[in-house]
Amino acid sequence: MLSRQESELLAASMDIDRADKMVENVVGRLVLPLGIGANFLIDGQQHLIPMAIEEPSVVAGVSSGALLARAGGGFRTGSSEPVMIAQIQLLDVPDAAEAERAIFAARAQILAAADKSPTLSQLGGGPKGLEVRHLPDTQAGAMLVVHLFIDCHDAMGANAVNTAAEAAAPLLEKLSRGRAGLRILSNLSDRRRAWAQVEIPAKAFDSEEFHGAETVERIAEANAFAVADPYRAATHNKGIFNGIDAVLLATGNDWRAVEAGAHAWAARDGRYRALTDWQLRSRGGSTSLYGRLELPLAVGVVGGATRSHPTAQLALRILQPLGEGGKSASVIGAERLSRIIAAVGLAQNLAALRALTTTGIQEGHMRLHARQMAVTAGAEGEAVERVAAALVAEKEIRVERARELLREYKAQDLKERAGELRP
Q1: Are 339 and 370 in the same domain?
Q2: Confidence (pLDDT) at 362
Q3: How far apart are CA 67 and CA 258, in angstroms?
Q4: Which residues contact 23 (CB under 8 A, 6 or more apart)?
Q5: What pLDDT is recorded for position 123?
Q6: Whether residue 242 is found in the same domain as residue 290
Q7: Could you tell me which of 4, 171, 310, 410 has the fewest CB atoms within 10 Å of its CB?
C-alpha cells in the first residue's frame, strides 16, 4: 500500500523547479498516464508493473497476457552479468597485428587505467576485460576498435563507461602507435542481456469463439511470419516495446538506448527478425505454447533520472515483489528489473498475437480509443463514458462524431435539468 505522501506524489508528479534541474531550457512538463500492469507472476513472485504510456489498450493487454501466463506457472527469467562495452576507436595504426599483441600484453595496465569509479570498484564492479576488433575496410580506412568490458552493478553505467573509455585512450594510443578517435559506450549491450520464458497449456486459451489448440497454433504461425519477414518483424517488435518502453519510462531509464540495442540485436545475423520465439509443444497428448524473449537490457536503479525523478523512485518501489498481504517485500536491483522488463515484453507480445490471430486487435483498441476521442471533443466526467459508448456502438470512432454526440448529450442533460426545476 502507498502512503498518503506517495499517493499525492503520483497525482502531482514533479514540480517545475525539479524539471529545470534535469534538462536545459525548461518551459514546462509533459505528463503521461501512469498505469499498473496486473497479474504478473515472475519466478514465483508477484509484481505490480508501473507503466508510463499514452497509448490505449497497452496496460489492459499486458495484464491479459500476464494472466494467461499464470496458467503455466508464470514467467521464468534469467540474465547475464551487468557488463557494458566501452569502445575506443584507434586510427592510423601502422601495424594492426603488432598493436593487438601489445594491447593484450598490457591488459592489466589498461584495465587499471580505465578503473575510474571507486564506487563500482568497492561493489566488485569496474573494468573486467577487453577485446580487440579489426575493421580493415571502412570508408575512413582501417581501424582497430578496443572494447573494454565494464561491470556496472546496479547502474545503467553510461557515465562510468564513457569515463573509462576516455581514461584508457592515451595508453591505447601509445601501445598501438595510432590515435584515438571516438571513446564512448556501445548501446548494443549484448553482454548484458535478460530473458523471459513461459509455457502455457493450450486449454488456457479456450474461449466461446475459439478453441485453445487453434489459437496457440495461430500464435506460432504469426511469430514465424515475424521471424521470416522484416516488414512484419518491425511491427511485431514495436508491440513488444509498447510494454518495455512504458516500464523504462516509469522507472527513469533510457528507453532510447534499450531500443537501439534491441533492434541491433534483432538484426545480429544480418537480417532483422522477431525478438520472440513462440513454438508449440506436445507432451502426453496435450499441447502447450512455449514462448521466449531475450534481448540486451541495460537498466539501472541508481543514478540518472532513477534518482532525480521522484515518480521514478516511487515506480521502483511499486515494482518490488509483493509479499503476504500485498506489501512490498524487498528492494529491487538492476538485474531483477531487467528480468521483470523482459517478462513484460513477452506478456505484451502474447496479448497482441492472441488478439491479432483471433478477434482482431482493433475491437478492444478502438473501444479504449473512443474515450480519447470523447475527451478530445471536450467531454468531461460522466459524459466521457456516454459519448465513448455511443461511438463504439456506432463503430464510428471520429472526433467530429464525438463532438456531435457531446452536443446531443448536453442538450438532453439541459432538458432533464429543466424538467427537474419545474414546480
Answers
A1: no
A2: 59
A3: 26
A4: none
A5: 87
A6: yes
A7: 4
Tens-place pLDDT, residues 298-312? 999 987 777 778 888
Residue in the block written with cell 499498473 = 36
Catalytic residues: 55, 238, 254, 365
Question: Which DSSP symbol is given to 328?
Answer: B
Cell of 112: 587499471
Residue 252 DSSP label: T
Q: In whole angstroms, what is the distance from residue 7 CA to residue 390 CA?
A: 33
For 16, the domain range is 1-31
- Which is it for strands 179-186 and 45-52: parallel, antiparallel or unpaired? unpaired
Cα separation, 169 vs 133, in Å, equals 15
Q: How far is the C-alpha of 368 from the C-alpha of 60, rounded, in Å?
A: 10
Q: What is the CATH number of the domain that holds 66?
A: 3.90.770.10
pLDDT at res. 298: 97
275 contacts 295 by C-beta, under 8 angstroms: yes
Backbone region of residue 360 per phi and psi (left: phi > 0; alpha: psi in -120 to 50; beta: other values): left
Q: Mark which of 164, 186, 208 sits at the end of a domain.
A: 186
Distance from C-alpha of 362 to C-alpha of 56, rounded to nearest angstrom: 11
Question: d(Cα 354, Cα 77) in Å, to the nearest integer?
Answer: 22
Same-domain status, 76 and 94: no
CA–CA distance from 148 to each of 85, 88, 157, 224, 296 (Å)? Answer: 6, 8, 13, 36, 17
Q: What is the pTM of this model?
A: 0.86
Interatomic CA distance for residues 338 and 45, integer angstroms: 15
Pairing mode, strands 45-52 and 286-296: unpaired
Based on the domain organization, do 133 and 262 belong to the same domain? no
Domain count, the chain: 4
Q: Which string of DSSP letters, residue by residue, matches 135-196?
A: EEEETTEEEEEEEEEEE-TTB--HHHHHHHHHHHHHHHHHHHTSEEEEEEEES--TTSEEEE
Residue with cell 515484453: 345
Do residues 160 and 213 share a domain? no
Can you read off the three cell numbers belonging to residue 76? 521464468
- Decide: 128 and 151 in contact? Cβ < 8 Å: yes
